[in-house]
Model the fold of this input.
Amino acid sequence: MVRPPKLVILKTPVESGNIHSPAFIVNEQICRSNISRMAEKARLNKLIFRPHFKTHQSVEIGEWFRAEGVNAITVSSVSMAHKFADAGWGDITIAFPLNIREIDEINQLAGKVSLNVLIDMPEQISALSTSLKHPVGFYIKIDLGYHRAGIEPANTELIERIIGYSKSGQLTFKGFLTHSGNTYQASGKQEIIAIHESASQELSKLKRKYQSDNPGIIVSCGDTPSCSLAEDFSGIDEIRPGNFVFYDLMQLRIGSCKFNEIAAAVVCPVVSVYPERNEALIYGGAVHLSKEAIINADGSRNYGLIIPFVDGRWQSPMGDDWLVSLSQEHGIFKTESTWAKSLSAGDLVAVIPVHSCLSADLLRSR
Amino acid sequence: MVRPPKLVILKTPVESGNIHSPAFIVNEQICRSNISRMAEKARLNKLIFRPHFKTHQSVEIGEWFRAEGVNAITVSSVSMAHKFADAGWGDITIAFPLNIREIDEINQLAGKVSLNVLIDMPEQISALSTSLKHPVGFYIKIDLGYHRAGIEPANTELIERIIGYSKSGQLTFKGFLTHSGNTYQASGKQEIIAIHESASQELSKLKRKYQSDNPGIIVSCGDTPSCSLAEDFSGIDEIRPGNFVFYDLMQLRIGSCKFNEIAAAVVCPVVSVYPERNEALIYGGAVHLSKEAIINADGSRNYGLIIPFVDGRWQSPMGDDWLVSLSQEHGIFKTESTWAKSLSAGDLVAVIPVHSCLSADLLRSR
Done:
């Protein structure tokens, strides 16, 4: 029986003849250089570097981090924590508020590794405290304007109720953590830096307020835009960027990276061309790229940048060749450039995905 | 090691205690009744019923179709065709234009089952004709306004070049096929029926034009909105709806189904509640639900309807409780109803997904 290859990670240069269906490919050199640059920035700024592994979810790429001296990681789910614990990672923060339905799985993890969880409701830590069999550290998740998860810094009543569980049984309060996801909606470097600085100040204010009673607490932040663009990390103890390992079109758009720092692409076969409407069809749809989109100035949606794939490597963009629609398996792109107009059935193109985390997640299990 | 269960298919009533992470669940009774109703409609209208299996991708649900007398199916990828060939399906149409990079895999399939492919470019069939080792039927994909794939019906020069490959070697021209995906953007039953009738007329015109030279050719159409709402199928020989097996929020919105015909939901744990902003966090994000959204009248995006999950079954909606944002693992919903405001950490809710095909695809491999 023929099945598409399990595309956990294909590295450039890729043997083009082997690509029959959408394939997630990584440029190891760029990827290692992204890792190395961020590790160096952390060292220079005396920051704990706890990279988020949700982007790549790859044991192999994890080893590239280990080669840079990384030994503490962040994940976004309990199952991901188990995967990396099995791969030999011994210090893991699950950067997702505690799901009390997973306390059994958390107990098993806590028996094996040094584990930190996130708390943003007293009910979560109350449930955890009564069933924990092994030591677990907890961070209080602070909401500094992204309004996804977390407690507002002014809500000291809630914060103090949660801190109250520290040292009772197996639980230790480790500090304050935030994710400034609002940098993804920022319109440039200046706005990103402003969000980053305000977050640093708010978190270090909390640290100062609570550190005498809780010595050793730290503050942790660091989304990819902030960590890529900021130079000043005063007030911060730990950064947890994830996306920078690959970057993507969204990061390019908001200015977090240059094109030649993008380390991943999805290679797709051209299936048909429709010269009468300046469009072409690729085998590559929502189940490979996700429906994450960039909104163009005119309100239209852009699902990925189409670029040449030559000699097993993606090349520089040739023009404004964008995916304008995606269905389950189909991707349609506008052939704006002369290069794109010359494509024919059976050619391969590379797609720079809008959101590499989602594309990597979709293609890792196929 | 703990892993989330492989959620290929969980049937209601589900044992709630077993749900720790997002789970795709199916109400078998509703699902079988959707299948049975569509099979009956096909019988009454003397149509070949070739359901699209891309929605469920489940061998078990496939058997529910077989129990209704179905023996011919549609899939959207070569790998899906292999999967269902292995499960004993002997008559398969791959309703995606021929990807010439997959000709080897197509040859292997054609040696095992009665296989049909889609052609919308002479280059595709030319490549196929020189390498085919077993008989394959082909349909010409016609574009009737959706502008995703296909040849415009007026382009008889292209159509005739493709038909020219029939009976040369292993290839047989089987007829004309379309997918009126534009019904998904329709604003009500009347517009859907108008699209359906126009498609039927255009395809049967093509059939009349070419059937004397190609006896036995058929016309095939049938997206879920058309097949759910139309009563008149004159001019059509075959229907291929897929989504109707589950339906979803999008279909409910465009009027293809009633709420009590929706056969699938994603059950998610409530992780946190934020009463100060009338929002709550579920464990359920883009990697479980996809980023497919319905656009509300005010331009905001709606990623799924939150409803109660009681005694292992989802219930009727209690109010306007919608997912307003999704990231990789997080879903945030507005707690508009009194019911939603009373939820707390550890409760389970059901999400009616916007697009059940994508949710089923995401959750089948976890």
User: Anything to note?
Assistant: The longest strand of chain B covers residues 264-274. Residues 1-7 of chain B have pLDDT under 50 and may be disordered. The first helix of chain B runs from residue 28 to 44.
